[in-house]
C-alpha cells in the first residue's frame, strides 16, 4: 500500500467521523473550550445521552480526531489538533 492510499484511507475515516451532527458538536465543544473535558461534560454541553456519546467518542478517537485519557473512573477527551492540521488545515476555524 502506498503512502497516498494510506492517507486516503485516513481521510475517508475522518470524513465519515465528521459526517454526523453530534460528532461535529463534540468537536466544536472541545475546540471552543480550549482544553480537555470529561466525557460527561461534553455530553451535557452537546445534549447527548451517555450511551450515544460513548459511541461518538469511540468513532472520533478511531479517526484520530480526539484522544481519550482515563483518570480513576473519569474519562477525559481532547482534540488531536495535529490530525486536523495535517488532513484538514483551517477546518477548526470554520466551526
Q: How would you portray this structure in words?
A:
By secondary structure, the chain is of the alpha+beta class. Helix content is 59%, strand content 15%. It contains 5 helices and 3 strands, in the order ααβααββα. The chain has helices at residues 3-17, 21-33, 39-46, 50-62, 81-87, and strands at 37-38, 66-71, 74-79. The protein has a 3-stranded antiparallel β-sheet with strand order 1-3-2. Helix 2 (21-33) packs across helix 3 (39-46). The longest helix is centred in the first third of the chain and has 15 residues, at 3-17. The chain is globular and about 40 Å long. The chain starts with a helix and ends in an 8-residue tail after the last helix. The mean pLDDT is 94.
Which keywords apply here?
alpha+beta, 95 residues
- Beta strand count: 3
Order of helices and strands: HHEHHEEH
- Strand portion, in percent? 5-15%
Helix content: 55-70%
- How are strands sequenced across the largest beta sheet? 1-3-2
State the low-pLDDT regions, or none: none
Cα-atom radius of gyration: 13 Å
Tell me the span between the first and last alpha carbons: 34 Å
The structure class reads alpha+beta
Described by strand count, sense and barrel closure, the largest sheet is: 3 strands, antiparallel
Bulk shape: globular
Number of helices: 5
Mean pLDDT: 94
Detail the topology: elements first, then pairings.
Blueprint: H1 3-17, H2 21-33, E1 37-38, H3 39-46, H4 50-62, E2 66-71, E3 74-79, H5 81-87
Helix pairs in contact: 2-3, 3-4
What's the quick description here?
About 60% of the residues lie in helices and about 15% in strands. The protein has helices spanning about 5-15, 20-35, 40-45, 50-60, 80-85; strands at about 35-40, 65-70, 75-80.
Amino acid at each position: 500500500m502506498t503512502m497516498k492510499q494510506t492517507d486516503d484511507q485516513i481521510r475517508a475515516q475522518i470524513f465519515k467521523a465528521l459526517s454526523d451532527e453530534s460528532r461535529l458538536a463534540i468537536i466544536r465543544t472541545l475546540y471552543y473550550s480550549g482544553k480537555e473535558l470529561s466525557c460527561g461534560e461534553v455530553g451535557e454541553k452537546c445534549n447527548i445521552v451517555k450511551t450515544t456519546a460513548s459511541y461518538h467518542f469511540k468513532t472520533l478517537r478511531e479517526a484520530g480526531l480526539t484522544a481519550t485519557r482515563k483518570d480513576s473512573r473519569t474519562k477525559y477527551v481532547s482534540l488531536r489538533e495535529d490530525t486536523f492540521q495535517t488532513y484538514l488545515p483551517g477546518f477548526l476555524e470554520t466551526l
